[in-house]
Design brief:
Shape: globular
Number of strands: 11
Strand content: 15-25%
Radius of gyration: 23 Å
CATH architecture of the largest domain: 2-Layer Sandwich
CATH superfamily of the largest domain: Metalloenzyme, LuxS/M16 peptidase-like
CATH class of the largest domain: Alpha Beta
Order of helices and strands: EEEHHEEHHHHHEHEEHHEEHHHHHEH
Strand order of the largest sheet: 1-2-6-3-5-4
Amino acid sequence: MALDEPRYQKTVLDNGIRVITEHIPYVRSAALGVWVGIGSSHEDASVRGISHLIEHMLFKGTPLRSARQIAETMDSVGGHLNAFTDKEVTCYHARVVDVQTGLAMDVLADMFLHAKFDPVDLHNEQQVILEEIRMYDDAPDEMSQDLFVRSVWAGSPLGEPTIGYAHTVSSIDRDMIQRYMHERYTPDRVVVTAAGNVDHAAFARQVEELLGQTSGRFHGFDPPPPVFRPAVAGKQKDCEQVYVLVGAEGTSARDESRFPLSVLDAIVGGGMASRLFQEIREKRGLVYSVFSSHNPYHSGGIFSISASTSPKNVVEVVSLIRAELTQLVEHGVATDELQRAKEHIKGTLLLSLESTSTRMLRLGRTELALGRHVPPSEIIARIDAVTKEEVDAHAARIFTPQRLALTVLGPVDLQPIANAFEALAESA
């Protein structure tokens, strides 16, 4: 079976909505998504969390369907309905058997266009989100990630938490939501995607019927490129482990260097054979979890390493992370681990394509980030083309000791950890 056998098609409606499908005739499912190129980074400080609140409210009912009827409609056909809000996008998505594609799209469009935003429902959902905020405050892994991003991207909307703050979420009313959506949920920011056993022409006609009469242009802002700050930040928290993040400046989703950085990510902490996993967990048994990730956005990115360990081991874990990064800067990567990392990335990609939901998500993310479809064969070719010299150069650039950030959360004093971290930087 050819890698790119599913047929990709794109139609731009007269009002600017983009309809994109990937036809996979050998499956019986269809995954659909209504995307908006608007996320938490587009919010004013006074309404932080409004995008996430809107996401919740679209499930609370329309004049045609109550919240219960929305749920029952999808349950009655064995479908799944959900949504997520990110820093740059919001997506409302469904997965059904192929013969129910029309029903799922009708439900999504009804929610998207006709949500009631009933004041009682709004108040109740604000209370739900306040509980969600409290839940995150009780989850040290989530809390440490939030602290890390806020410290390295301080002053940027991209550094603010997607969920918002209790005082901003509580202050949002129905008029603010409707005004925000009128200015930002405009056709030129909307992408509708479907992957699976879906006929493109029929699907595009339905989207035209349901959403083709919407109008308007985006009246807002895209966040400026964030400035990465190699900050050292910490917070005391009564928990069993210490959560550590070491970070560096990454690259944007549009930058060609994202391919060698992906390979570097796999080598550093992308799997069980990665350097950090082998050195810190397998060889020394100091952690259960240690991994790296590169998160690219429209105008910037972050490379981060995350680990959690007992308080007595935290200085050693931080020292081992820095030592491994210094090794990469001074000696580069080995040829065998370079090839292994490439195969790891390609294998992970190909396995993910077994899912129609993953394919649907790829359609939306690449369209909003790059303005085009990126076929798997292109990604594989770009990964195969990455050289040792490129990976070494990026490691030397982003892991320069003075450019690394540190975040620590847990029942420890930050200062001894920060002193050890800075001492390693000075000795490198």
